[in-house]
Amino acid sequence: MVARVRAGGRSERTRQKVGEASLGLLAEGRTALSPAEVAARAGVSRATVYRWWPTKTELLREGLAAHTARRIDAPDTGSWRDDLQALAHRLATFFSDPAEVAMSAVMASGAAPDFDALVLEQFEPVFDAWRGMVERARARNEVRADVDADAVLLSLASPLVVIPLLFHRALTADELEHLIDVVYAGSVSRAPIQPAGRARPTR
């Protein structure tokens, strides 16, 4: 990996501009980024971009870093229910962002495997932090010992990715609260969840 510009001051502002320019192109569904194109959009010299971000991979990584830095960290309220609710609201906002929807569409197409690998690389430490949130709740005896952390997180995140991608909208407030209820109930209780709108059998 190429060394980054120095942190702070003008160099940091340049890095932010390049990250936002790369992210803007990703939001248009474009993964074949070029240093010249990013330089023009960022308003910085081509020489600077070619020096520090000479490849498409480096520019993609910078754009993804600019995106995942936007409030998808794991909450730590001391309560599993509150943590789950806070994370769900953060993810609902994040995954309905036009840039994220465009990137989800690229990944779903399978047309850019190198890009897919970079996204997964970028998200791995983020997902580890989310796992830590589940493990903290387990240590407080709020989450069952037999519950898999990844299963909980994927159950929460998957609808938040799929609804904006396929239906071009975010979840409604009621849908989001229902999702939180389902994931919470499945992680703390073995009691079966009665599907909404389905009548209970009568004798």
Search tags:
203 residues; mainly alpha; Arc Repressor Mutant, subunit A; Tetracycline Repressor, domain 2
What this model shows, in words?
The chain has 203 residues and is mainly alpha-helical. The protein folds into two domains: 9-67, Arc Repressor Mutant, subunit A (Orthogonal Bundle); 72-188, Tetracycline Repressor, domain 2, CATH 1.10.357. The chain is 67% helix and 0% strand. It has nine helices and no strands. It is elongated. The model is unreliable at 198-203 (pLDDT under 50).
Main sheet makeup: none
Count of DSSP strands: 0
Low-confidence stretches: 198-203
Q: How many domains comprise the coordinates?
A: 2
Average of the residue pLDDT scores = 87
N- and C-termini, Cα separation: 67 Å
Oligomer state equals: single chain
Using the coordinates shown, work out and report the CATH topology of the largest domain. Answer: Tetracycline Repressor, domain 2
C-alpha-based Rg, rounded = 20 Å
Strand content: under 5%
Q: What is the global morphology?
A: elongated
The CATH class of the largest domain: Mainly Alpha
Structural class by SSE content? mainly alpha
CATH homologous superfamily heading of the largest domain: Tetracycline Repressor, domain 2
